[in-house]
Amino acid sequence: FKLPLITFIDTPGAYPGIGAEERGQSEAIARNLFVMAQLRIPIVCTVIGEGGSGGALAIGVGDRLMMLQYSTYSVISPEGCAAILWNSADRAADAAAAMGITSTRLKQLGLIDTIVEEPLGGAHRDTGQMAEQLKTALVDALQELSLLSPDDLVEQRYQRLMKPGVFKG
Fold first, then answer.
1. Residue 83: is its pLDDT beyond 80?
2. Distance in angstroms (rounded) separating the CA atoms of residues 73 and 64
């Protein structure tokens, strides 16, 4: 098959308990990252709500990463971050601001490619309009990616995965 892969991300993340680790959760996430990175087809990932932790990372490996306007994407929840930094989940708002989990901030940082505008009041207020806007963004991304060879897709995806955390002096 040469069909593209489209993922929709809406998860608070992988369960952080011992039982999940005993059942191989981290290995499953790592294996999924490895496999998706090597797929020779276009992959477009879209955060449609909450994109949290390893659960979001596991299905967020793609050639294009889009976010709905009011969605969030982070390696840890604001509550978890606040608990680690300040020993209090009460400072979740401070943590969220510091982490830059919004679509606007992540676009500024170059971590996402596209912000998909939501209808006034959010996606749930007009699901038909939201579906049309998401469809347009997906079609645009897929048309752009269809011009690339399978080798170029894999190489550009690899470069994309290596980019976060690299800073210019």
1. yes
2. 15
